[in-house]
Amino acid sequence: MQITQGLRRAVQVNADGTATIFNGRRQTWRQFADRVARLAGAIAALGLKPGDRLAVLALNGDRYLEMLFAGWTAGAVLVPLNTRWAAPELAFALGDCGAAMLFVDDAYVELADGLRRTCPDVREVVYMGESTVPAGMHDYETVLDAAAPMADAGRGGDDIAGLYYTGGTTGRSKGVMLSHRNIVYNAINVAATIRFDRDTHWLHSAPMFHIADACGTLVTTTVGGCHSFLPSFRPEAAMQVIQDHKTSYSILIPTMINMLVNHPALDDYDLSHAMTCQFGGSPMPPAVLRLAMAKLPSWRFIHSFGMTELSPFTTALVLTPEMTKGEAPLLASCGYPSLGCEVRIVDEADREVPAGTVGQLLARGDNVMRGYWNRPEESQAALKDGWMHTGDAAYVDDDGMIYLVDRLKDMIISGGENVYPAEVEQAIYQHPAVLECAVIGMPDETWGEAVHAIVRCRDGQRATEAEIVAHCREHIAGYKCPRGVTFREEPMPLSGAGKIRKLELRELYARQPAP
User: Is residue 295 classed exposed, middle or buried when 0-12, 13-18 and 19+ CB atoms within 10 A define those classes?
Assistant: First the structure.
């Protein structure tokens, strides 16, 4: 299985069909494939060898898609970097994987020089923006125009195709190793479970570094569909593109859907054509879903579950208006396992539990990752007996429908992004006034969950909420920083093992009115 076979198929089945639309540019699949081959030649000419890591730090766009396929054609391992990370987090990922080359756009070009100094493995930086080329960087269009087309390097199967960094409970990111087989299998799985064909027009609304967007990248290419792009999500920009380009499929996390359906300009746009909206990644309030289905009756909504380690597509449920009636328990379900993935719910000893019993969700199939980059022990634990141990608590009903209940770990999902409390706590503990802290997720109408810090200061010392948040911003990405801070005088409640009882804190502070 080769990812690049999907591009070759797109040319075979729809060579003169539109491949990408962005920023006034439009190209066919024949033109797209030619640019990819020449960019792959440029990447190889700059010294990147098969198996080397190629990182990208950029907003969504047609060049991002080109460089992904060019990197795979050249045999690279792609490392899409989280655009919301702080510089130290980016430097860690680049250093951890030993990236040899970095692509950046206008939004992140100023970070590139610092990252290159911090990460000596990064030998070349390619500027993929629209302005003047910074000193010391290669211009995307210049190197592409000068290069000869490159034949496919031939990597595939269990060769690593991408490293997708995700947070860890230890506070350090882990590189999830996804192979060509994983990503191709996921694309076939999506196409088989949810209809994709050459008429599909995929809108890259989620960031392209995120595995959620990658879910549709290859399948849309393989069927010879079309790609449109939002550099970053803004409700009016999204509605404009959906209206003008008649996009037919996108992943919108619940926060985005909430922004759309409650936007005062919603009725100013014609969104009446058929559109599939897939969501997941954070809690979806039933009231928001009902409102979305009422205001956008021509749209099809699909609730899915996935995770980076599963490439990511794992379950899906196509929602219907009938499901919104009454108590509508199905609105909470993420559906059935996708056609190529096996799911079961187990207890602490990995024994399957009866229907209706909450346990850990395990998954198995060719979509399951190869492991974590340079972390064999963590890989072995996650992939015990060939099953991915997701860390998610779930149950199945008598009809085989899957319901997610909670995270077994303390992960917080805020606006579709995973936030691990241990990492935030480590940042807070570096503040000199802090004696104890605990970070929990609090229900939030906008973000699904909000990161909330509970802090106990040292005797005789004080800090303010603004000081704690500002301190965190110096160490971690903004989306991980607390949106609220509660100060307490008494010690934190502890379990028998000496761990802070976060469930008790959640229950306590959830009952208290906001200050």
Answer: middle
Output the CA–CA distances (angstroms, integers) from residue 427 to 416, 447, 478, in the order listed.
21, 22, 12
E strand or H helix that includes residue 105: none
- Containing H/E element for 442? strand 434-444
Residue with tokens 């409970």: 169
Q: How many Å apart are CA 379 and CA 175, to the nearest integer?
A: 11
Count Cβ atoms below 10 Å from residue 232 Cβ, excluding itself: 11
Q: Is 47 exposed, middle or buried (0-12, 13-18, 19+ CB in 10 A)?
A: exposed
Cα separations (Å) of 117 from 49, 56, 95, 111, 427?
Answer: 22, 17, 11, 10, 24
Q: Which residues contact 459 (CB under 8 A, 6 or more apart)?
A: 435
Nearest to 33, CA basis, from 61, 66, 77: 66
Strand boundaries in 167-255, DSSP class E: 174-179, 201-204, 226-229, 249-251
Q: Which residues have CB under 8 Å from 254's CB, separation 6+?
A: 279, 281, 282, 283, 284, 285, 288, 416, 448
Q: How many helices (H) and strands (E) does the chain have?
A: 15, 26
pLDDT at 128: 97
Backbone angles phi, psi at 36, to 5 degrees: -60, -45
pTM, full prediction: 0.84
Give Cα 89 to chain centroid, integer Å: 16
pLDDT level of residue 28 (50, 70, 90 thresholds): very high
**Phi then psi for 430, rounded to 5 degrees?**
-75, -10
Quote the CA–CA distance of 384 and 362 in Å, as a whole number: 10
Cβ-contact 403, 333 below 8 angstroms: yes
Q: Which residue carries 């020449």 as its tokens?
A: 38
Per-residue confidence (pLDDT) for residue 497, from 0 to 100: 41
How many whole angstroms separate alpha carbon 158 and alpha carbon 151?
20
Q: Fill in the DSSP letter of residue 500.
A: B
Whether 169 shows a pLDDT value over 70: the answer reads no
Kindly report the backbone phi and psi dihedral angles of residue 455, in degrees, each rounded to the nearest multiple of 5, phi listed first. -125, 135
Which amino acid makes up residue 404?
Answer: L
What pLDDT, on a 0 to 100 scale, did the predictor assign at position 170?
41
